[in-house]
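Figure 6 in text form: structure in, sequence out.
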């Protein structure tokens, strides 16, 4: 957003510089014409010539000021572009890290899913073995009782 503002300001300043350069050229050509008339001795033209010189000086000062503003704006724009480029590189690196982390997360989720299935299978086997153990223990106790009866 700031870059767009600076670019717009840069364009305005460039237009201003172009306008001031045209004004300067017009003033120079206007000054050249009165000098030719001034040679003939016309006092009115001399005053116009002085006014033209003042306009030239003002236009030159305005042109220099506009050029300085343009240079400052371009410098600020280049700094912002460098900052923008650095931030974009950081963003790209962060995006790559995020992609790697997402991939790793999906791998871990897959492993967790497999381990949950394995745990469920082992729980089922454990329950089956407990049931068999109780059954065999009861049969053993029953046999001990029968042996005592026979003995």
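Output sequence:
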């Amino acid at each position: 957003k700031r870059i767009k503002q600076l670019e717009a300001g840069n364009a305005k300043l460039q237009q201003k510089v172009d306008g001031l350069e045209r004004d300067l050229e017009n003033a120079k050509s206007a000054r050249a014409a009165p000098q030719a008339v001034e040679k003939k001795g016309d006092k009115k033209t001399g005053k116009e010539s002085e006014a033209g010189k003042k306009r030239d000086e003002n236009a030159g000062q305005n042109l220099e000021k506009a050029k300085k503003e343009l240079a400052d704006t371009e410098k600020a724009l280049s700094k912002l572009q460098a900052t923008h480029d650095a931030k974009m590189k950081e963003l790209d690196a962060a995006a790559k890290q995020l992609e790697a982390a997402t991939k790793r997360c999906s791998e871990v989720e897959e492993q967790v899913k497999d381990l949950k299935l394995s745990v469920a299978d082992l729980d089922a086997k454990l329950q089956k073995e407990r049931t068999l153990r109780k059954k065999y223990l009861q049969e053993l106790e029953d046999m001990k009782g029968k042996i005592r009866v026979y003995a």
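Caption detail: The two ends are 101 Å apart (CA to CA).
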